[in-house]
Amino acid sequence: MEQEQAIGAKRVWESVKLYTVKCAKCSKWRLIPTKEKYEEIRERIVERSFLCDTARAWRPSVSCNEESDVKQDDSFLWAMDKPRIPQTPPGWQRILRIRAEGGTKFADVYYVTPSNKRLRSMVELSRYINEHPHLCEGVNISQFSFQPPVPLDEKYIAKRARSTTHDTSSTPAAGFMMLSLDSPERETFNDGLPSRWFVQTTEKMPAEGAVAADDD
DNA sequence: GCCACCGGTGGC
DNA sequence: GCCACCGGTGGC
User: Fold this and answer.
1) pLDDT tens-place string over residues A133-155
2) Would you state the torsion angle of the CA atoms of residues A52, A146, A92, A201, taken in this order, to the nearest 10 degrees?
3) Cβ(A57)–Cβ(A40) under 8 Å?
């Protein structure tokens, strides 16, 4: 039997590095330790408000009296995520890729299948499920959502290809990211933004992987 | 040659 | 007007 050797070969790089959710009571940001936990919270945030108390499950000492885990300043790129996105089925990955600043879109969502195939849309997904029933037992399309987050800083996206040719040294959006969830209390944000999830990245990163090594 | 990334567009 | 979908392509 061939192992999953091939799986490690393809590197799938998630833009989001950090996840945070806002306490519905004190409005402070609490970091979420894992993507899995974050997805669990995100799925049910509307029904179950997130509180600092919730974070005690992994951080017993935390309370509303403590300072926010993260400051909402511009050292990060923040994006609002959507609630009710289903938890990713076991064996699959839901990947968020943030695009470079100044483009026409903010982010792409895709799923990586148990056989390490990258799917870009519901069309591709349902085709895959049909063609690989043995890999997709107990899985159906209601468990998937390609809904991307939106940038908190709307200037991140160029509204449209404009005549103004700005020669930005367009930095790759790759960086440390933080995905965070606002409290679900109010239904409308400032300009009727639909939900209150956020993603953050740090400032510019030189390039993917460039930082890691001191060379050799 | 592959595939990550981006823009175009058709359907709503 | 928006956005889901997918084709093109540039960089590896």
Assistant:
1) 999 999 999 999 999 998 888 78
2) -50
3) no
Phi-psi region of A209 (alpha: psi -120 to 50; beta: other; left: phi over 0): left
Q: A146: Cβ under 7 Å from strand C?
A: yes
Mean pLDDT of chain A: 74
Nucleotide nearest to A108 (CA to C1'): B5
Per the listing, tokens 């699959």 go with: A92
The residue among A206, A204, A187, A203 whose CA lies nearest residue A195 is A187
* pTM of the complete model beyond 0.85: no
Task: Give residue-wise pLDDT tens across range A93-104.
Answer: 999 998 988 899
CATH topology of domain A18-157+195-203: Methyl-cpg-binding Protein 2; Chain A (3.30.890)
